[in-house]
Every structure is written in structure tokens, then in C-alpha cells.
Design a protein that fits this description.
heterodimer, A: about 290 residues, alpha+beta, Immunoglobulin-like, C8orf32 fold, 2 domains, four-stranded antiparallel sheet, 14 strands, B: about 850 residues, Dna Ligase, domain 1, 4 domains, nine-stranded mixed sheet, four-stranded parallel sheet, 27 helices, about 45% helix, ATP-dep_Glu-Cys_Ligase-2 (chain B), DUF403 domain-containing protein (chain B), CP_ATPgrasp_2 (chain B), DUF403 (chain B), Papain-like_cys_pep_sf (chain A)
Chain lengths: ~290, ~850
Amino acid sequence: MRYKLRHQTIYSYVNSVDNYHSVLCLQPQTLPNQICHNFDLSIEPSPTKVYPRKDFFGNIQHYFSLHEPHKTLKVVATSDIEVLPKILPPISSITCGEAREKFKNEQSLKIELLQFQLPSHFIDWDEEIKSFAQDCLAPTKPLFEGVSQLSTKIFKEFQFKSGFTSVNTPLKTVLKEKKGVCQDFSHLAIACLRSMGLAARYVSGYIETLPPKGKPKLQGSDASHAWISVYIPEMGWCEFDPTNNIIPQEKHIITAYGRDYADVAPLKGVIFSSGEHKVSVEVDVIGKEN
Amino acid sequence: MTKDISLSLLNSYKKVINSYDEVIDHNGLVKPYWQSLFDTLESIGIEELEVRNQEIINKLKENGVTYNVYDNNNGINRPWKLDPIPFLIHQKEWQTIEKGLKQRAHLLDLILRDIYGPQLLIKKSIIPAELVFDNSGFLLPCFDIKQKLQNQLLLYACDMARGPDGKMWLLDNRTQSPSGSGYALENRTVMAKVFPELNKNIYRNRLSPYFNHLQQTVATLGNISNENPNVVFLTPGPGNETYFEHVYLSSYLGYTLVQGSDLMVRDGFVWLKSIDQLERVDVIIRRVDDEWCDPLELKENSLLGVPGLLQVMRLGNVAVLNPPGTSVVENYGLMAFMQNACKFLLDEPLLMNSVATWWCGQPKELNFVLENIPKLIIKKANRKQGFKSIYGRMLTKDQLLELQTMIRRNPKDFVAQQEVSLSTTPSFIDGKLVPRFAAMRAFLVSDGNDYKVMQGGLTRSSPVKDKFVISNQLGGLSKDTWIVTDTPTEHYERIVVRKNTSNQHNNSLTSRNAENLFWVGRLLERTMALTSFLKIILDRLNENVNDKGQKQPEYLVVLFKSLTHLTLTYPGFTEEEDTSIFENPTTELFSLISDVKKRGSVAYDIQTLLRTTQQVSEKWNYDTRRIINLIEESLISIKSSSSANINQATHGLDMLYTRLFAFYGNIFETLPRDNGFYLLEAGKNIERILSLVSVLRSAFSFKNNEEVENVLMEAVLENHHLLAQYRNIYKSHISLVTVLNMIFLEKNLPYTLSFLLDTLSNCLSKLPKSIEPNRLNLAEKTVLEASTKIKLIDAESLIKADGDTQYRPELDQTLAQVFDLISAVTSNLTSLYFNHSVIQHSFLETIEKINSDEI
């Protein structure tokens, strides 16, 4: 499937901003199952220079800074992406307990996975999270099946509600209130997996959505999305989308992998200003006929 | 004769030794160089030693040497403690130690480069992966930063103490921004002044070559981009515990002292914001911890760093000593793997022992630790503030169990170190020479490929008997540290010559300092004005002492009210309905003197002033610092003054007043006439005008009967330092018209409004202009307007009062307008020169704000 992707972010500030520094993580990667044919970044007001960089995880970031007073900032990333069908390898019957032992004892595996097993900026766990994960990820349970179950459990028990949580809402609250957005569900699923000694990472990207039957697709109606990637021995990294309870296929476009949202935030910045700011984001994922 | 006493002093010391001591060699004999030190001490005599000790305390205080302790209730400054007995190491032994130190520096540098590079140490299982990935010092954004010299670890310090085998053992590593070298230098300087005779019989190596090496390394780093590099010394600010050292070292090395907000990143470079331009920065020596260096990529809420710094480092456009990320090798857990890492990376055994260390992340080690806690010291692998090392032998049974449970829960977080017996060294405590545990910090600097070791160091000894409490935070004593030689060593100093002497980089006035100097001027004058006015009131109160218990005379009521207006401490004396405050005015009066918590009081003002002077401590010379110390002493006496003793309070205020004047005199005579000076003067004049106008308004806006008005006129003239002049000209005749004419218009008397406004406009004209030189800027225009209003007055018409209300509309409104105009000058100056202080925010785009129903 081929997509034209457009991600537009507009910041408007009450007081003008004199200095602004930003790091973007918006460029979809070229991966075995995904080709980024074209990527274009447009920033207004225009910075003198944009510096691209590959981060520790191989994601592409862009740094820029602005030094003229401005009241709005517009960042538009457009890309032409081709997502190839994913062929799921044969499902491994390895259990959660066996996987955990493997991660402990196989040195090369341990080095690769350790950072995705440890607590990270937004992800930590306690007994409550552990007990939430317990039944899905019991030691004797096959790992793949367990993760699918966890994904289903989150999908069924949690209500998708935007505006209820913020990036700083602790997982405890999400678990208690059973509400949140894709980012919360992904963080929660990762916390569950890591609390059981398993390895999971955060995937930042997009998903194509379809308008209700008979209606045209509205501009800006898509959104950036997040899901998880779990390491399953004999299969490698496998992706799960707990928000939609599906296994990502051709509708999911991958931008970046990280330990959690903090590593791969699409846009982060430091401003020098004395006032409030508003942000509006529009995302379009338009499927193109091949 | 002397010899005999000497033996007795040494003998009496030997008698109190209860462990192995630095003074005694392994054959039980006194080491010869300690013998010569004791000889000298003997010739000085124990009583004189006490005198010199006091002198040391005074010198350190005068030099402003402090070590700030965050949670110390007695204010934030703790004086630095220096033991008059130095710590001695003979050069022969030192040469061996040096080899060990250099090897360790090389090793840590290689480990550092491996961790942020190929990670072979992990891949080959030489160090556990947890100690990298679960190490709070491992900063992912730093993995692609490589500075241009081969060594990434440029500055290194480590703490050592003598272990049971008689050799120096390594206790701890400092790699991100090692502190202490400045204190070592100051210790040496003070000791040389107070004990000139100590170095007569003993030769010791000099410390200065270390600093020359540092300057050369800095020059090499900077030369990559600029042949005359602009170097800054980045401090977290006066709240930091070692702030004294930042001020001291930056000035010794000749680098501009800056805080994060003084720097900005733009167009791929780091710039220093001075009040009239941006200057490119080539090298940053930082004392800001790793994580706080760049809020964009590291700790997002850091206000101490420079957003975008890491990106400039990646571009190679600025060098940082040490580069952020270096704290990864400070992790205690790594100490357990040094021997193996050394074999792997350097193919040689470790030369210097470290204290035996066990990382609890391994099952065997964990069991060992759990079973041997009483012999061990327990630490967290990641240095975290607040976790104090636990001494196993001090624990009760319950505490022991608790600790075991804590370790079992997260074994990977814990490290245990053997509690070794360390050597003692003579310390001068309570007039006696007694043995105390000590540790020495050594300092190394890289020249790019190799390390140079400071020929000395910073020794800290425990103030408590038989306990190893050396940290400054806990009150440890410091010692001058000598590398003793048998013959005098010649030294060659290579001085880094600046290639372009016209370059003024190193005395740039940062916008922040510009603002601080301006406020020093304002706060100094605010304290002066209030002190002066209080003295006038106290005099009147004393004269009126006969009427005690009765209603206060009207003029005192007016003066009291003026005091509330001046200090903005409403309601104070201005309560309209309830006038009971005048029955016993001294309570309110004295709270305005001594209550340090009351905003607007003398004590409060002094404290704010002192804090602001500290922000710009690098601007003050030795004498200014002494005067600041005196003002600090005045604060103590002012805080204790009470209404029970008005004379004593007056005396305290007099003393303070003289000291504040000494401050004025000193800065006026010594400060260079640069932007900083004119801003300070502008601040002073603004505050002076505001306070005089405030008192004038309160005194004369309403007409009083002649008798009251006469007293008020005298008081106001005194407040303007004009009473003598007035009497000289007009003798005993006193009228409001002549008084106002003099106060407003007289051009040659320093406390008249005309004079002050002229001075203020002169100061402002000296400051840099961004627009064409002949055009007045906003601040100058405002002052001109105020000045014109003052000069156009007609005193006859000013004093006209409304027959019913006794209100003098013209006088009051003129003064009100002038007050408002002069108040506005501060914000004019802020937008012209200090406009850096906009608040910095970090934010992440948050998904929850996306308007979408389905994801």
C-alpha cells in the first residue's frame, strides 16, 4: 500500500517567542517492510538551517532553532511511503518463562534487549501493574499468545478517551481510571511486559483511518499513532496495537522506535517566552492506488 | 633545648596515635620529612599555632572562601575549614602514585569511549550490561558526540587514602565536573601567607603547573576554531555548594564566569550574551552536572544549561570540559570490574588498588554481601543525592534485616565496599595535635593524549575522632597537601599568551551581571536610605522621650507614616481607623529594623543586598569583599537589636551606615568606568530619587501647623544631607519655599533632586546605544521628562494648600509624576539591556490535544 502522509503542527503563542529550539522526530524510516520514497519538511518561519541526525536507535531526527520573534510556528512534514505486506513468521510456542530465561542467559540477546526491559522515562511499574499483567503473561503461557491476550485485555477493559490524560499522567492513574489514548495503552502494555521480565519497545507512527460509510474523508482527520513491539525468540520483534487490538499490517506507518514516548516525541522544543501557547495538529494519511 | 621540646610535641602526638599513622613508617620510625615539619611546628610553638589558626580562619573569611551547604539553617554560607597542619607525601612515593593515577585516567577514558562507542566491554562480558544501560549517567543523546582531542575525559579527580598495606588506595572517581582544585590552590595561598616559616626547611612542589596545563589544553581545544579562543566557565550559580571555587578559578584562569542563561545557541554556535552584543564562545569549562547541560536533549526542566548545546558539540563548534555523558564512569558498580577492564583495554594489571567492591547484580556477590554486611559499606550503584552510604557495622539487628530486604528487592541497584582501615594524620583540633582519618583528592588534566597530575591536591580530614567523615557537607576539614622533595625543584612555567591583546573577551559584561550590578546599586541605596531615615526618626523619638506614654506628637506621627510609605510595609503606621499603633510605636519600628522576614525592613534589605552582591562576586576586589563581610556582621547585630535598647540600635544603624558608605567609596574609587559601573550608579540614583521623593510626599502633601512643619522640614533637610548647608545660608529662618527650592533646584549639592537627575541622565548616556548616538533612548527620555518637571517648579505655587483639606495638589501631583517616571526607568533599562530573562519552557507535543476520535 502506498500513502501520501502529511503531518502539520501549528503552535500559536500569546506572546511572541524570541528564541526557539526544537528536535523533530517525524521522518518515517525505510525498513524491510516499508520504503520512504520521499520526505519533505517545511518550517515557517524558516530556520537558517535544519540539521538531520540519526539517534541512538537509528531514528531520524531534525534539529532547528529560530531567533526572530514569532507568534506562530508551522511545521509540515510530508512523505511518500510504501508499506509492504508483512509476512508473520511461524508463531513460536516459546513460553513467557522460557523467553525470560533466554534473555537472562544469552549474552548477545541480553545486550540487545536490556534497555527495553528496564524502566524508562515514562514507564515504571508496581505490584498493581504486575497483577494486571499476571494472567496474560504467566510463565507457562506461550509468549505470542500472551501478548495478544494482553492487547485484547487492554482493548476491552479500557475506554479510548482523548483529553483525559496528558503526557505526564502516571500509568497508575491510567490503570485505575481505565481511560486514555494510544500512547497510554502502549505505555501500559510495555510496562506490563517489562514487569514480567520481557522486552518491549514503543513504536511511533501513523495509521490510516477510513471515513464512516458514504462520507468523504475529512482533511486532517487522521492522527499520529503509537503501538508496541515485543521481542519473541525465534520470531524477532513482533508488533501489536493494543488500542485497536490488531496486529499492525499495511495500515501502520512506522516513524520511530524507542524505549517510550520520550525517546521519539514527534516534536519537542524549548521556547523563551512569557506566555501560554496553543498547539493544533493535523494529520492526513491518504492511500494512493499503486 | 628546642630539640627536647620538639621531641615532646612529637612524642605527645605519638602517644595519642591509635591506628597506623602518616607520620610513622613501616619500621615504626618517624618519617624524616614529618620530623622536619614537627621541628618547625615546635619552633612556632603550640600557642602561636592557635594564633595562626585564627589568622587562617580570618583570611579565609576575608577572601570569601565558602562551601555552601544546602540545608544549613544558619544561612547558606559555610566558611571553608583549613587545618594548619598540611598533609605530606614524599615525591618518591608520589611518583608511584602518579603512575597509578595516570593509568586510571587512561583506563576510565578508554571505558568512556567504549561505552559511547563499540561497547566491546559489554559484548565481551567484561562489564555487565546493566552497569551501562541501567546507569543514570549513560546519556543516549551523547553517543554521537566526539570531541577533537583523543582523550574524551579531559579533567579527572579521584579520592585516595592509605590502605592497610601502606599504599594509597583509590576510593572514588570524579569525572563529570571535578571540583576542589580551586580550594587546593586557595589553601596553598593562605598557608603560604600565614605560615611563611613552614616551607623554609621543607621543599615542596608547586601547584601552578597543573593550571598551566589546563590553560594549554583549553587553548588547544579552542584553537581548533579560533586562534584566540573565547573561554567561559559555566557555573550553576551562587546556590551551588562550590560557587566560591567557580568565582575563584574563573578569575585565576582568566575566563568569563557565566550561568546557563548567559549563553545561547544560534546558527550552530554558542554565544555569550553581553549587554551590547553576542560573542562567540569556543570553550566551556562546566560545573553544571551532565544531565543539566542541555534542556532540549537532556533534563527538560533544567534552567542551568544551554538549549541546543549538544547539537553545537556534534558540529564541533564548541568544546566542553568535560563533555556531557562522562558521569557514566562515576558509577560505583563499575569499580568492581576495573581490574578486568584494565587487562582487556590496556593489557596490564591495575597499578593502584581500589577499595574492594562488590556489585550485587551478580548472584555470588549478592550472597557474599548479604552475609558480610557488618564488614561493608553499602552504596547505590548510581550516585543519587540523598542516599548516604550505610556503614554495616553501625546497624542494629532490625536495620540490618531491613537493609538485606532492600538489597534483595533490587540487588542491581546496590554496591558494597569493604570498610578498610585507613591511616590517620595529625590535625590541629581544639589546640591539640591529634590523629584523624584523611583522604586526598588528586587532580589530573589531559593534554589530549596524556595526563598531567597536580603536584599536590586537596586533603580532607575528619573532624571527629575514629570516624571517617571527610565530606565538606558534613563539616570535614581541609588541608594543604604537599609533595615533598629533598632538593628544591626548578620550575618552568609556560604561560599561555593571548595572541591578540586588544581582545576584551574576558571581561565581557553579561546581561545577567549587568542586571545584578544595577540591583546592587538599587539595594545598597535602598538600605542606605532607610537606615538614614530611621536614624532621623530614632533621634526625634529619643528627644521626645519625656512624653512617654502620652500621645505621640503630630510630627512623629507624620514621620512614622512616611516610614511605612517608604518601605511599602502597609498598613503599618497608616491604618486610618485604628491609631493604637502610636501608643507603642516601637514594636512596629523595630520590626522595620530587625525582622529579617519582613519585606522592607533593614535586615531584609541587607540580606537581599548580600545575596545580589554574591551573584556578581567576581566583580569585587579583596577590599570590597572585606567590606561585604563587615556588612554581613552588621546584619547579625541589626537582627538582634531590640526596642529595649534604642541607643544600641542607633549605634548598630550608625555602624551599618558607615559600612555601606565604605562600600560606596570602595567601588567608586576602584571599579573601572565601564557599563557595569554606570548601571550600578544608575541603580543607586534611581533608588535615591525614589526614596527622597517618597519621604517628601509623605511629609508635605498635607499642610500641618507651623510647629510641626518646622520639625518636618528639618527632618527632610537632614534626610537630604542638606541641613548644615541650609543653616549656613539661611541661618535659623526656615520656610517651606526656601527648603523646596533648595531640595528641588540646587545644582551643586549632591542630594538635591536636580543634581540626582542630572547624574542619572549622565550615567545613562554612557551606556551603549543601539540606535544612532544622538538620539535619546527610552530611559534617557523618561529621565529628561522627570528632570524637566522638577526644574520647572515654582515653589510658591507648590506649597498652596486647599483651605478645607490642607491638601497641596500641585506638590503632591508633581512628586507623584516624578516618582512614576523614575520607576519606569527600571523597566526601560530591562528592555534595553537585561532582556534575557524571559522564562524558558520545555514542552513535548502531546498526543491528547489531537482532535480525533479514533485511533
